[in-house]
Amino acid sequence: MSEVGRSLAFGDWQQWPAEQAAAVRGFLHSWWEHSLTTPDIAVPAYEVLTLCVEASGTLAPWLDAWESLSDPVADRRLAEIVARWGPDLLENQFPWHTRNDEQAQRAELTAWLVRHAPARLRAAGAPEQLLPGGDEPAPPASAAYIVMADPEGNGLCLG
Predict the structure, then answer these.
(1) Phi, psi of 136, deg, nearest 5
(2) CA-based, 20 to 30 A from 117: which of 29, 62, 95, 110?
């Protein structure tokens, strides 16, 4: 799906006449929200996110939209993305090939996950001992755990 997003970006859709650019933007936002709030989807949310980021050239509006949703399906989608992309992020790799600043986007995505994932993963039923702030300390980093930290040192440990 990232290739589709890159194709849109190469078409320079954001420079199209305002009405046409607004239609593309509206479609992307609608599809992104649909992928986060609909239980049975044809395209995984992480694929839709890659398309939206590549098409728009930015990660922030898509993460902001996700952050604004209070929905159990959106929380499950977060667990899916962490499971899918956590190993790449742990290895300081961006989880898809991008035309954008990979290092900056990796830092932005990791920081967002560290700030927002723990509460949402708790809501989705993740074991409390795996999340910072739980009653028990987080387990040590090992091959069985995904550990992420933002530049300020805030961490998230998932098993």
Answers:
(1) -110, 150
(2) 29
Angle at 37 between CA 33 and CA 43, to 5 degrees: 75
Strand, coil or helix: 155: strand
Question: What is the 3-state secondary structure of 100-147?
Answer: CCHHHHHHHHHHHHHHHHHHHHHHCCCCHHHCCCCCCCCCCCCCCCEE
Spatial CA neighbour of 129 closest among 154, 159, 155, 89 = 159
- CA R_g for the chain: 16
pTM over 0.85: no
